[in-house]
């Protein structure tokens, strides 16, 4: 059985992204943190952390992190079953895309809150939330990817339809001849962030039609 103290130290280093910060949080020396990580790596026979330049898990480290998160969740659920309401809420980290977070996610978060479950929400692009899941940063995500990482299950949550809308003045200025591909390519565009691929997908669809 893996040492719980070493596992929690490993998780804390990743959460803090720094050995010294993890040491301060755990109230131990940085050398003790390093020793616990080395002992855990020796126990599993694999390197678990890299510095590139921040602290990131290796593939083996990602597997260990998922194990730690599952262990924490199981412990929280067990304590809640034994003495409901006597322990802090179960905390679950999930990755959600911005559009879902702003529209349909509120009823879900409210329902989970009623079940004494706290949420640590990471907002990211829907094409990239699954990366956080595979890395072990979160326990679940809303994603466009059909195939889940190994050890997870994917369920269809529904679809989100996007409509093109504009003011009459914008249409007169930028689309006087209609929604043709050449006209669209000259229209000013605002992307949510550098990971947002919806704009490119829309242009690809228009090109095909």
UniProtKB/TrEMBL annotation:
One of its GO terms (molecular function) is DNA-binding transcription factor activity. Keywords: DNA-binding, Plasmid, Transcription, Transcription regulation. Belongs to the LysR transcriptional regulatory family. Residues 2-58 form the HTH lysR-type domain. It comes from Paraburkholderia pallida. This is ArgP/LysG family DNA-binding transcriptional regulator.
């Amino acid at each position: 059985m893996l040492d719980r103290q070493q596992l929690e130290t490993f998780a804390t280093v990743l959460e803090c992204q720094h050995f010294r910060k993890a040491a301060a949080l755990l109230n131990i020396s940085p050398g003790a943190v390093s020793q616990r990580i080395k002992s855990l790596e020796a126990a599993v026979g694999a390197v678990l952390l890299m510095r590139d330049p921040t602290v990131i898990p290796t593939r083996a480290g990602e597997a260990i992190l998922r194990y730690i998160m599952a262990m924490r969740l199981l412990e929280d659920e067990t304590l809640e079953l034994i003495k409901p309401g006597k322990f802090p809420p179960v905390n679950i980290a999930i990755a959600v895309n911005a559009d879902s977070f702003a529209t349909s996610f509120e009823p879900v978060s409210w329902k989970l809150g009623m079940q004494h479950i706290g949420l640590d929400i990471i907002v990211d692009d829907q094409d990239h939330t699954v990366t956080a899941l595979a890395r072990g940063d979160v326990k679940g995500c809303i994603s466009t990817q059909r195939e889940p990482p190994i050890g997870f299950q994917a369920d269809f949550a529904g679809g989100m339809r996007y409509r093109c809308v504009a003011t009459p003045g914008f249409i007169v200025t930028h689309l006087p001849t209609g929604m043709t591909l050449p006209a669209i390519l000259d229209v000013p565009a605002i992307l949510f962030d550098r990971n947002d691929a919806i704009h490119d997908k829309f242009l690809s669809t228009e090109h095909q039609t």
